[in-house]
Every structure is written in C-alpha cells, then in structure tokens.
Amino acid sequence: MDLTIEAISFLIATAFVAGSIDALAGGGGLLTIPALMSVGIPPVAAIATNKLQGMFGTGSAVIAYWRADRIDFRAFAIPAAGAFLGSLAGAFAVQRIDSGFLAAVVPVLLVAMALYYLLAPPMGDVDRHARLGRAGLSLVCAAIGFYDGFFGPGTGSFLTTALVALGGLGLVRAIANTKFINFATNVAGLSAMILGGKVLWMLGFGMAVANIAGNQLGAWFAIRHSGRGARPLLVIMSIALTIKLLADPKNPLWTIVKSGF
C-alpha cells in the first residue's frame, strides 16, 4: 500500500519512542500497532509489520543486556522455547480471525493494557525466592507467548511481571531476561506472519532501524536507572493513539456498540 512521507515519518518516529519504552518496561507495541492502524494499515498487517520491527529492536536490546552480563541464557532457554511455541500458535490463529473483528477489538485491548500499566504496582530490584519452577514458568511463558503471537502489546510487561512475581528475579534482571524470551516470541510470530504473506517489508525495515536505536537508548537507561520512568509516557501516548483509532466513525466497534442499543 502507498503511504505519504508524513505517515512514514510518523511511524518511524513512533518506532524510536516505542523501542526506548520497550527496553525499559515492555509495551512498545501499545504505540506501534495503533500508529500503524491509524494510517490505514489493516490489523493483521499492522501486527505482522510490528513483529518485524520489534524483532530487530528486541534483538538489539538482548545484545545490550548480554554485554552487561544481565541475561542467563541457560536458565531461561526452556521458558523461551515454551514462549516460542505459544507465539507460533497465536500468530497462526490471528490470521484466521475476521479483520473487522480485530479492528473493533484492538482499541479495547489497548485501553485495557494502558489501564494495566497505570494501575500495576511498582516492582523492586532485589531477587527473591521463586514461586514456580522452570516447568511452571515455561507454561506461563507459553501462555504469554500465545498472546504475543495473537496481538502483542504489553507482552514485555507481562513477562517481566511473571519473572519478578513468579520467578523471583529483581526488576533489571527480569527486564533483561524478558528481552531474551520476547525475542523468541517475536521470531516465532514473525515466521508465521511471513508464511501468511502479511508483512509490509520496506516499512517494517525502516521502523526496525528506528526501533533498534530506541532499544539501545532504553537499555542503557534501564541498566543505569533500574528501568523506571517509562510508564506515564506509555499510558499517555497509547491512550492518545487509541482515541485516534476510535475517532474514525467507520471503526467496526461503533457498529457493534450501535447494534447493542
């Protein structure tokens, strides 16, 4: 599809901001998916293109955290494998859902995720006793992986919360290992979307460059400042973009609402 220079510039700038936030706390997709849809890209193509740019950005964050010796690849290989399989299943499932339904449900999911970020309690940076073993944590990661393949925004936050609350990790270690697991879900989801022919390649690569730069900035800030400070900006921007989606009177959600009254 043809996009204006203004629309492409807007998407690339959004990818940079989303990458910075994603490396800090997860949830960059809360910005990129509604941004992609706001310029007229269909929901599944938006999710697919977001997977492409997000995979490169998350991969760059993995490298940054690995260089800082914050990722335990051996300990989280099995949870990452579970997340990979879950994401693969979710990405195949979403391609079989009616696009009109997705266009209606995406704003609702985005508002729910913004509320989660607004209301979720802060997490500490001290390791604690793990509540789940590797097998249990792998099942949780598989479920979160399915969500990531099906939709995506907030996956990083869900994984970070699981690693802190159930895996016993401190915040920065949880964020770092989340990037490793999230990279696995992005690879799986993107693979399924490629097979379905849903990816907008040139746009995705352009956004990927910006997302990589943003992830590097966010990872640098998280390592030095304990990963705090991104939530208010994430909530404000995601709600603003959701309002933009709902401002379109042709959004299928309004048809559903009207049919209910």
TrEMBL record:
One of its GO terms (cellular component) is plasma membrane. InterPro entries: TM_pro_TauE-like, TSUP. Keywords: Cell membrane, Membrane, Transmembrane, Transmembrane helix, Transport. The chain crosses the membrane at residues 73-94, 100-120, 132-150, 156-175, 187-209. The keyword Hydrolase does not apply. It is found in: Cell membrane. It is a multi-pass membrane protein. The keyword Ribosomal protein does not apply. It comes from the Bacteria. Belongs to the 4-toluene sulfonate uptake permease (TSUP) (TC 2.A.102) family. This is Probable membrane transporter protein. It comes from Novosphingobium fluoreni. The lineage of its organism: Bacteria, Pseudomonadati, Pseudomonadota, Alphaproteobacteria, Sphingomonadales.
